[in-house]
Design goal:
Strand 1, helix 3 and strand 2 form a beta-alpha-beta unit. The protein has four helices and two strands. It is extended. The protein is an all-alpha fold and 142 residues long. It has a two-stranded parallel ribbon with strand order 1-2.
């Protein structure tokens, strides 16, 4: 049988040799469980997880511009930003590397909106996709 030695396995031994509940200190596990405040924040944040991240990174651009003390218009974010910098040769154009609008980065934004009490009614919310959706018949019917 495979011998697991990493830690975090609370399933093999549920009690200690003297019958007490097994508490694993080898991993970052809270023996008290998830705090109620975190449970509520996650519950409310899930409502915001249906929307795609802001492709223009508006809040990020504002905060980064304030931090770097440069206008937001001088900042580029996203997958194509590095390629843009090969073409844009302007002294005020700054590339902020390593920042991409990924879904995994939505949790802090969702938490911020929760704290601010900003919630969307997902039944009636219309996301902004940068262009209007137009349904057309395909040119070639397969």
């Amino acid at each position: 049988m495979y011998k697991y030695e990493h830690g975090g396995d609370i399933y093999t031994e549920r009690t200690t040799k003297d019958g007490k509940p097994f508490v694993d200190f080898s991993a970052n596990i809270n023996p008290l469980g998830l705090p109620n405040g975190i449970k509520e924040a996650v519950k409310h944040a899930l409502k915001g997880c249906v929307n795609y991240p802001d492709p223009f990174c508006r809040e990020l651009a504002q905060a980064t511009g304030e931090y770097l003390q440069v206008p937001q218009e001088y900042l580029f974010f996203g997958n194509g930003a590095a390629k843009c910098m090969e073409t844009i040769n302007h002294p005020h154009a700054h590339l902020v590397e390593g920042i991409e609008p990924l879904a995994k980065n939505m949790a802090p934004l969702a938490e911020k909106r929760f704290v601010e009490g900003k919630f969307e009614d997902v039944a009636y919310f219309v996301p902004f996709y940068l262009k209007d959706f137009v349904a057309k018949m395909p040119k070639k019917l397969i």
